[in-house]
Amino acid sequence: MAFSFFSSIFGGGNPTEPTATVSSIFIYPIKSCRGISVSQACITSTGFRWDRQWLVVNSKGRAYTQRVEPKLALVEVELPNEAFFDGWEPTNDSYLVIRAPGMDTLKVPLSGSCEVIDGVSVWEWSGSALDEGAEASEWFSKYMGKPSRLVRFNTASETRIVDPKYAQGYKTLFSDGYPFLLLSQGSLNALNNILEVPIPVNRFRPNILVDGCAPFSEDQWTVMKINNLTCNGVKLCARCKVIDLSACCNHFTDYHVKVGTVHFVVVKLNISSTSIK
C-alpha cells in the first residue's frame, strides 16, 4: 500500500480542513543506521515496508544501537528506488547496499534464503532472526572493531508486540517500540530557535514529518487522517541521547541537557483501505 508524499493530515477540529501536510517520509532499513528519504512508501501491519527490518548484533546476539555504538550513525543504506512502490518484489539482482567511511561497499541480496539463528535480542524482545551471512558479518565486524552480524527480522515465525498499555493488537519489527514516529517541522523549528547550533531532522529519526501546524500541536493529536488512513497518536516519545549525536563527527554533544526532555508523537495506523498513492 503506497503512502503518498504530500498528504493532508487532520489533527482534530473541522475534519474538512487539513491541519498539516506530510512533507517527508523516512525509512530506516537497518536499526540505528542512516535513514532514507522517500517520496512514497508501502504500509504493512508493522509500519512502513523495509523500516527496521535489519539489525546489527554483537557476538551474543544483542542489538547494537547508536546509544552505545554511535559510529552506526555513519552507515549509509540504499535500496532500489522501485522497492518503495506498491507490489514490488525483489529479484536476484536486488540488493541492500551499505556504505561507511573507510569501508568497501557491501551488497546484501534481498532475495534468497538465509540461515535462521536463535538468541537475537533487542530491548524486551528475543527470538530467532535471519542471518545475512559471512560477508555481511565480516564487514560489520571490521567496521565495529568486534565480532558482529547483520540479521533480518524473521517474519515467518516471529512476532514482536507493541506495549499493550498503549496499543493493543499491534506489532512491529526492530523499532524501539511502535510502527511509526511523527514529528512536525514547526516543533523542530521552535526547538532550534533556542539552540546555538540547529539540530537537523535526522537526529530525531522520524518516519513521518509534517508541516503547517503550530509548534508542538501534534502532542495533542489523538486521531489523524492521512489520505484514507486513520492514525492514532498513542503516546509521546521521550527522546534519548541519540539527538545529541553528531552524525557527521561520530560524537555526542550536550543538546539534550540544555533543552531538557523533548517529546514527539508515536502513532499506530488503522488501515482502512487497500491502496493510497
Automatic annotation (TrEMBL):
Pfam families: MOSC, MOSC_N. GO terms for molecular function: catalytic activity; molybdenum ion binding; pyridoxal phosphate binding. Residues 148-277 form the MOSC domain. GO terms for biological process: monocarboxylic acid metabolic process. PANTHER family: MITOCHONDRIAL AMIDOXIME REDUCING COMPONENT 1, MOLYBDOPTERIN COFACTOR SULFURASE MOSC. This is Mitochondrial amidoxime reducing component 2 isoform X1. The lineage of its organism: Eukaryota, Viridiplantae, Streptophyta, Embryophyta, Tracheophyta.
